Amino acid sequence: MTLFSDQSGPDAPTAVSEGPLQRVRLLVAYLGTGFRGFAAQPGQRTVAGVLGAALERHLRHTVELTCAGRTDAGVHAWGQVVSLEARADADLGALERSLNRALRPEVAIRAAAAAEPDFDARRSATYRRYRYVLLNRATPDPFRAGSSWQVETPLDLAAMRLACDPLLGEHDFGSFCRRPTASASLSRRVRDARWVDEGDGVLRFEIEASSFCHQMVRSVVGTLVEVGRGKKKAGEMSAIIAARDRGAAGTMAPAHGLCLWEVGYEPLGRAELWPGAVTG
């Protein structure tokens, strides 16, 4: 399947199968506010849609994109990874510059590099890390409004931190995920879950796992905020996980506070994957 099948004429992209190819990985950041998520959807503006169109204009052949994490509508990314096949003679430096000119300011290609032939942005990933930012104060911040959730009620940070402990390890996270239509496993291994107090009322939640099911992070954050507000107790988190029932957890946090921060590909380090790239 190609992203854009309705193009015709002498300037239309050729088929990707023509000529030798190279595997390419892109490190992509984007502001998710104006997109209906990452994945291409007919009639919807998506990150894959605008990125794929820009790639095809530059490469002059069709592309198929694979991303590390299919972010939902309104969710941002700093460390999204995308893999694709490009013609073997493509200058990746020129490609990066061309994409950044075409896609700014909403989308930025932080790095473009050649990858091993079997590299797959989704299947090769060993972990994903998300960040969620809360503004816990009465005074709003216009400069953070699009990337944080303002919660005016004072929150009990100690209780929220305590409630993170049961999340660690491998569990069925059915209480925090939208139930899939097919019988798919909702078991995930969480490697890290913590709150960081940045000062001035800014609280940052970090969570890292092998992968995440749909709406999992936002549901976890919403539940932790209910703990911080005193609506739930930190000691209830283990029972909420064990229930495997979406009704046991709290209300989902808004999408605009969430960011896909980093994707890991062990045993390779970040410097090996992205020479010259600036990490957050």
Structure described in brief:
With 280 residues, the chain is an alpha+beta fold. It is built from 6 helices and 10 strands; from the N terminus they run βαββαβββαβββααβα. The longest helix is centred in the C-terminal third of the chain and has 14 residues, at 216-229.
What does this structure look like?
- It is built from six helices and ten strands, in the order E-H-E-E-H-E-E-E-H-E-E-E-H-H-E-H.
- By secondary structure, it is α+β, with helices and mostly antiparallel strands.
- Strands 1, 2, 3, 4, 5, 6, 7, 8, 9 and 10 form a ten-stranded mixed beta sheet that branches.
- It is globular and about 60 Å long.
CATH superfamily of the largest domain: Pseudouridine synthase I, catalytic domain, C-terminal subdomain
Structural class: alpha+beta
Number of domains: 2
CATH class type of the largest domain: Alpha Beta
Shape: globular
Indicate the proportion of strand residues. 25-35%
Keywords:
10-stranded mixed sheet, Alpha-Beta Plaits, alpha+beta, disordered N terminus, 2 domains
Show the helix and strand layout.
Blueprint: E1 21-30, H1 47-59, E2 66-67, E3 76-87, H2 92-103, E4 107-114, E5 127-135, E6 149-150, H3 157-162, E7 169-172, E8 187-199, E9 202-209, H4 216-229, H5 237-243, E10 258-264, H6 270-273
Helix pairs in contact: 1-2
